Amino acid sequence: MLDYRGAPRNRLIRFVAGRLVLAVITALFVAVVMFLAVRTLPGDPAMNLLGTNSTPQQRVDLNRAMGLDRPLSMQFVIWLGHVLSGNLGYSFSQGRSVREVIVPALDNTLVLGLSASVLAIVIGVVMGNLATSSRRPVRRITDWFEAIFLSAPQYAVALVLMIGFAVVLPVFPAGGLSSRGAVGFTDELWHLILPSVALALAPGAQMARSLKTSISSLQSSDLLPALRGRGLSPLRLTVHVHHNALPPMITVLGIQVGGMLGGALFIESIFSIPGLGNLVVQSVNLRDYQLVQAVALVIALIFIAVLLTSDLLNVVLDPRIRVSKL
Predict the structure, then answer these.
(1) In sequence order, what DSSP letters do the residues of 19-34 get, joined into one string?
(2) Within the chain, where are the H helices?
(3) What is the pLDDT of residues 48-107, one digit of tens each?
């Protein structure tokens, strides 16, 4: 007899392997595009690093040290080989290895991104449920706030929050991740509130829209009346509705991570947070190719990893996706 018990597991393994291969291809494509885009930046890197008082020979020597005298294809092959071996290069603007520069900035960005993601999920769940309320005024007010959150640029929200709650009403600190002489989780959390809110409003509103659509679809179907007829309590009905709405929200959250990573470029600069976004601005201004390439690659890999994780979570959580994709 044939044993089919291992078939679902084999299909799941093939699905995961296919997604991993697609992620690797995407990462390689991003690396090529990003490498070429960095090379199109105007200006002479050696001039930006050495200054206008440097001699032509000094600039030639620095370009040779950075490997910029080689053909572009050879530069890419050498850089990619170093990256695959774990060597991100040397930052001539910082005077140390790129890894030493990126790791502290990455930690700060991950802390900001995690806090903003948690806040965005809370905003999405609350606004999504309010948008499907039986009370019309509540639905209309929620829709207004959703439209405002989606249309307002993150940098504009950050400036308004800073002026309103750090300057006019000095409730929160205006920037940084810690106060001078203060160390502790509470102090860092207090500094993260304004940038996290500025970063989370638009993704939270997008998740609220996704949750509202899912709940409205279930409410217009015959499923909820059937479950009520079986005697399910309101609490169990609520849990069932949110369980069905979870996969679309996970997908939206994964996509919105890209928006939050892009928004971090502005948020970290406005609030003086020493993260990857702030580091990108500094490295681009100095034309530090190695540092720009490494930071851009790290941001792209984070985005790809989040999308891959959200895709795999949807397969695990939603039987309908497992049937259709596996």
Answers:
(1) HHHHHHHHHHHHHHHH
(2) 7-39, 45-50, 56-65, 72-84, 98-130, 136-151, 154-162, 185-219, 223-229, 234-270, 276-286, 289-317, 319-325
(3) 778 778 888 888 888 888 888 888 889 899 988 988 898 888 888 888 899 999 999 999
**CA–CA separation, 183 and 189 (whole Å):** 11
Q: Side chain identity at 130, as an amino acid letter? A: L
* Residue-range domains of the chain with CATH: 103-325 (1.10.3720.10)
List the structure tokens of 54. Answer: 């440097």
* Cα–Cα distance measured from residue 304 to residue 325, given in angstroms and rounded to the nearest whole number: 20
Beta-bridge partners for 90 = 97
Q: Answer whether 54's CB lies under 8 Å from 46's CB.
A: yes
Predicted TM-score (pTM) of the model is 0.83
Of how many residues is the chain composed? 326
Torsion 291-294-298-304 (CA) sign: positive
Which string of DSSP letters, residue by residue, matches 171-214? Answer: TS-SSSSS-TT--SHHHHHHHHHHHHHHHHHHHHHHHHHHHHHH
Which pairs with CB-CB distance under 8 Å and at least 24 residues apart come from 49-56?
49/92, 49/93, 49/286, 49/287, 49/288
CA 321 to the chain's CA centroid: 24
